[in-house]
Amino acid sequence: MKLFFFFSLLVFFLYFSSSTARGPLHSSLPSGIRNGSRISFSDSVRRQLFQDKQSKLSDDRAKGYMTNSDLEKAVKEFGRRCSNISRIYSIGKSVHGVPLWVIEISDMPGEEEPEPAFKFVGNVHGDEPVGRELLLHLANWICDNYMKDSLARLIVENIHLHILPSMNPDGYFLRRRGNANNIDLNRDFPDQFFPVNNDINARQPETRAVMNWLREMQFAASASLHGGALVANYPWDGTEDKRRNYYACPDDDTFRFMASIYSHSHHNMSLSKEFPGGITNGAFWYPIYGGMQDWNYIHAGCFELTLEISDNKWPNANELPTLWEYNKMSLLNLAASLVKTGIHGRIFSSDSGMPLPGSVTIKGINYTVKAGKGFADYHRLLAPGERYEVCGHYAWVQTKNHTYLTGRSSHDSGLYSRSRGHNQGEPAKY
Ligand SMILES: *[C@@H]1O[C@H](CO)[C@@H](O)[C@H](O)[C@H]1NC(C)=O
Ligand SMILES: *[C@@H]1O[C@H](CO)[C@@H](O)[C@H](O)[C@H]1NC(C)=O
Ligand SMILES: *[C@@H]1O[C@H](CO)[C@@H](O)[C@H](O)[C@H]1NC(C)=O
Ligand SMILES: *[C@@H]1O[C@H](CO)[C@@H](O)[C@H](O)[C@H]1NC(C)=O
Ligand SMILES: *[C@@H]1O[C@H](CO)[C@@H](O)[C@H](O)[C@H]1NC(C)=O
Ligand SMILES: [Zn+2]
Predict the structure, then answer these.
(1) pLDDT tens digits for 181-192?
(2) Hey, what domains does the chain have and what are their CATH numbers?
(3) Which atom of ligand 4 is closest in space to residue 401's alpha carbon?
(4) Is the separation of the CB atoms in 102 and 89 below 8 Å?
(5) Rounded CA gap, 84 and 90, in Å?
(6) Does Signal show up as a keyword for this record (predicted)?
(7) What is the pLDDT of residues 65-75, one digit of tens each?
């Protein structure tokens, strides 16, 4: 069988400096964040008692934050107000039966199109509630501005954006990190090095819901929102030997580029003294196992970042508008980068002209990106400024490699602009 390709090349125009530094060693871990091992039973009981006491003491903290039922109302209200660019659905329920609501934003919500999908996941840790608030702001801001703002319009028209404001509503209610069973959901995914939590029956319902979601939907990229530090964290999160080390995944350049988009669009994340450029390799910061980020990249074809968006895990609610202003451009630019950079195209049979759900690889990068089932469209993020050889695969057949240069120009408008390379229009045949 012969194959031919249609590539469109999108060129990235904004120059980010200092995105290659890896950062000095740092010894102090933010308290309570991402400890590599699962807590033991006695630890967990002690912790629970402590936390129950704390949650009574700290009810004031939640003033000005949405309760779980406020969040549900806000999601449904959004769905009514912005019905022609959104769809509301649930991916499952928490241990205590709270629906895990998702807002999908697109000009054709719920319909398959040859467009990439991006997701944001908030409140993975129950006591990190800033993300769930900002994600509702984000949805509403896009709805209010997509007719007049070019970035909002670009997202609505070219991306399917899925927003899960809270992955852990029970943890939020309990004012603690873990879910109702006191399990850290960001340690509950199957792990590439340590199959300790590969027992499917032991998996938490919130984790299972996310895993099933990614089996049904193909996401090209995503980010989860955390608190307690200010840094954009990228894979790998774990090392094979359990030591703290820079442990690069095959797409290290791509991930550093993505993480830099977030940090450099942020109010001051890129100015971090602890993390040069405001980004870090997860394992270099401190290794974790069973995290959601690495699982996304390995098993779901999805390039996921873990974003620590505020030093204070649970700031006073009157700081939320400022935190929204600090993170707004980062959230928008990261989602938009999915169509402003990388390579995008479709795979067709040259005999029948039918879309072929094949895959593409890049020479020198040991990672396969699958094309979509319906339209055979593929969307692959790549760091700009390099020459790439792209190869298409279907069954045992392989196309001739195609070379592309993803450009970088001195054009410095402060926003991305979009341009197409050669080869647009007429498909090349092989
Ligand atoms: C994680 O917690 C355990 C037990 O509380 C402790 O012994 C270990 O040093 C911690 N690991 C990290 C990376 O902080
Ligand atoms: C949504 O509805 C508004 C108001 O009726 C309309 O102006 C707009 O074009 C619609 N947007 C889409 C994507 O259909
Ligand atoms: C960023 O700005 C906030 C608010 O002004 C400040 O508290 C924080 O220390 C700053 N962080 C960095 C890395 O500059
Ligand atoms: C084409 O690219 C693939 C990987 O994408 C690589 O394995 C193969 O060697 C390349 N072929 C040539 C002729 O360079
Ligand atoms: C490529 O990655 C796979 C895992 O995805 C691994 O099994 C294989 O050894 C890697 N190949 C090379 C050449 O590194
Ligand atoms: Zn967290």
Answers:
(1) 999 999 999 999
(2) 3-15+343-429 (2.60.40), 41-340 (3.40.630.10)
(3) 1
(4) yes
(5) 18
(6) yes
(7) 999 999 999 99
